[in-house]
Write a structure and sequence with these properties.
Length: about 325
């Protein structure tokens, strides 16, 4: 395993035992950039309204509220890599994330201005109070609906039909006038165009914010969320043994932070001594010995393991004994 691959695997394994409620609720990085891009699209339409965003366990917009739920795995690249491995369809790319944001924005703006009460909205899209079913029969050849998200999602429910139509209308360079110009769906798109001009500068009628399942309330770990085992992320049983050993040698639970040192620095400092022991006493090839010690150092760094000043000898002996046992078995 290369050093880059080792670090990627360690990052994923570290997240596995993290309760979802302990993840940061802040939007940043790539996700924040994509949100700003979609909001810039909205601004170009001179629409004043902006929704609330929060992290949850999937995409959504609570009925009759302006709160948009965004999947927690878009927080960073490691969580997205886990989702990509665990999810049936893999993780969304940047283009797909923006598609999701436009769709949910459509829901939020519908609720914010209560557009669903408009008789013309009802005539075009239907009754928003119609029973919502997760399972629906779609018609791939329908000309009455736009195509935005997969599985002909606009055909699921009047509320989804609106959100999908709004998303197509909002998407830059979608060419919706040409694509749908000769189909019944053009009436819905022209309605969106008309209504957005009407409400563009207006304050929303509804500013209610409701959160379905925010991450702050999700106690399960990421591993439990996916119903996964450590082996699903790490193909190396030896790496899992190394992690367990380092956690045992450098246990957490310090009552105070006084005189604490980073464990990885200790491993790095004594790596020449450990190399001599592995290479000379156990007759291990130099490259294999270096690779084994580097793995331990990376584990300590990734898991932010600590040791107390004055415990160096004890910890180095513990590492040496573990390495001896590990490589003698091999």
């Amino acid at each position: 395993m290369t050093r880059a691959k080792l670090q990627q695997t360690l990052d994923k394994l570290k997240y596995f035992d993290v309760p979802i409620c302990e993840l940061s609720p802040k939007m940043n990085g790539t996700l924040l950039r994509l949100i700003r891009q979609v909001e810039a699209e909205v601004a170009r339409k001179r629409i004043k309204f902006r929704p609330e965003y929060y992290f949850g366990t999937g995409w959504g917009c609570v009925d009759k509220s302006i709160s948009i739920e965004i999947p927690f795995w878009f927080q960073d690249e490691t969580l997205m890599a886990i989702e990509d491995e665990m999810a049936y369809d893999g993780v969304e790319d940047e283009s797909e994330i923006k598609m999701g944001l436009r769709h949910e924005f459509g829901h939020a703006i519908n609720y914010a201005y209560r557009l669903y009460h408009d008789p013309e909205w009802k005539e075009l899209f239907g009754n928003i109070n119609r029973k919502y079913n997760d399972y629906y029969r779609s018609n791939p050849w329908s000309k009455r609906h736009v195509k935005h998200l997969p599985d002909y999602y606009a055909q699921k429910h009047p509320d989804e039909d609106w959100a999908e139509t709004f998303a197509v209308w909002l998407t830059p360079m979608s060419g919706w006038r040409n694509v749908y110009g000769k189909t019944p769906a053009i009436k819905k798109l022209l309605y969106v165009e008309k209504k957005m001009k009407e409400i563009a500068r207006r304050e929303p009628l509804n500013t209610r914010t409701l959160r379905d399942v925010p991450i702050e309330k999700v106690r399960m770990t990421i591993r439990e969320f996916y119903g996964a085992d450590y082996e699903d992320v790490s193909p190396s049983e030896q790496l899992l043994d190394d992690i367990e050993a380092m956690k045992r040698i450098f246990p957490n639970g310090f009552k105070t932070k006084r005189n604490l040192r980073d464990a990885w620095k200790l491993v790095h400092k004594f790596s020449p001594l450990l190399m001599v022991r592995l290479s000379d006493e156990l007759e291990m090839p130099h490259q294999s010995a270096a690779k084994g010690i580097h793995a331990l150092e990376s584990i300590c760094r990734t898991y932010k393991l600590k040791t107390r000043q004055g415990e160096e000898d004890e910890k180095v002996i513990g590492i040496s004994m573990y390495l001896s046992k590990k490589f003698c078995q091999d």
